[in-house]
Amino acid sequence: MNYVKLSGDGFMQKKSGIAEWEERLLELNRQASVLDEEDAAVYIALLKSKNPLTGNQLSSHFPDLKRTHIYSILNRLQQDELVEIKNPGKRPAEYVALDPLRPIETAIRNQKDRLQALENLHQYVKREIVPRLSETGLFGGRISSTFVIPDRDEFLREIRYKISNAETRVMGHLTQDLLKEIKIPLYNTTKQLQEKHRNQGIRMTWEYARDHHALTVSSDNPDKSLETDYPSSFTFHDKLIETEILIIDSTTYLSNLDTKMGIVLKIEDESVTEVYRMIVINTYLEASFATQTSSSVTKIGKHLDSNPQIREMVKRLLKNGWRISKENTDMSGHETGILAPSTGFGLFRLGGLVYHPVENNNAEEVLDDIFTQFVSQSDYFVQSLQRQFDVVRTTKREKKSKYNARVLEITVKIRDEWKPVIEDLPKSMLSSEGLTGPALVGLNLDGKGVFLIWGLNPENVSHILDTFLDILS
Hints:
Elements: E1 5-6, E2 12-13, H1 20-32, H2 37-48, H3 55-61, H4 67-79, E3 83-85, E4 95-97, H5 102-135, E5 146-149, H6 152-164, E6 170-175, H7 176-199, H8 206-213, E7 215-218, H9 224-229, E8 234-237, E9 243-248, E10 251-256, E11 264-268, H10 270-291, E12 293-294, H11 302-305, H12 308-319, E13 323-325, E14 335-339, E15 350-356, H13 360-385, E16 389-400, E17 403-414, H14 427-430, E18 435-444, E19 450-455, H15 458-472
Parallel strand pairs: 6-7, 7-8
Antiparallel strand pairs: 1-2, 3-4, 5-11, 6-9, 9-10, 10-11, 12-13, 13-14, 14-15, 15-19, 16-17, 17-18, 18-19
């Protein structure tokens, strides 16, 4: 009997006689990450069958998969409402495939929701933030150091010079046309700044790159070579923009494309620039989330995937709208980025899962080492948020269920002057007391390894932890 076999790297291999449509469907599913590859293969086998199939019958289609694994896949497909039992209550259970459009339409709906969230962000910046900066006394008082550059060529000459002499950062939300105009000095300066900061002892993390050199490039026909060449954080966004934002050190340039004349507003004000820096970072994150995240459990690291309880926890989270963040997933397979489903301030949607399979007699030592390392790394996040938030941190040891745990607890409270700009946050974070809870939890799983959960939003960390402990119980 013909069947689809999984190769060692996880990709489907075609056997002779497999229909062209089936091979193409598997490939498109893999690219879109709608279903796990094994799940997709079993689902297609049910779609092709004229009659219901039992688990034993499906096993003959997939001799390389254990029968118990076939039943695990069928259970997952049932949970996703793609498969149902034709003869409930009878043995052996017979399975039939349901509507094949359902998972695709769900994925399309989710993507549309994320694009709409990004469009809402753009409209908020245009209609609310810019007028507030121009007409009110927020963020350092009246903006007196503001200049108009009426000519596009003059603007390009100035920013090429300013970029070449930047000392801290160059970042923005630009059109592809503008990026091509400033590509050479921008790319060269980014490399020079990275080398300068590296020599100063600054760790070249993804977070550092995002906060100093993030670029969101709007284009309906993206030139991917620009992304390949840029030595820092870069993402495309297919929605056209009306106002370009370019930040060079403490100066913000706003290029108003609506006028068709190239008029540019130049604002030399550190407080105002900090507002726009947060806008640029959040715009970058939201665009990245729309294009560089996945709802497939196959995207978690190999070590996390080796623990069945962690895999089941991730499956539950994904089913409830969480996403895997590829940019926050390390190459070794120990850490996987996880993204909360709520729209809002991008930094507070990010989190991560870390797993190290270790022997029980060594687990406490490994837990202490990894937990201490992550606490140290969290210093960067706290420093990057000090202008906008008050953050207090404490570490402690306690029991989570029956497991020894290390906890970094934080209290996060937004500063009053930032509330008009960063409103889309957990309500308790906007209160006078702030939001208190775990930002980092490390568990000794008693011979099954060391598991850590991190996130800037304690509510997200608590939700992941509760899901995991529910599975363990």
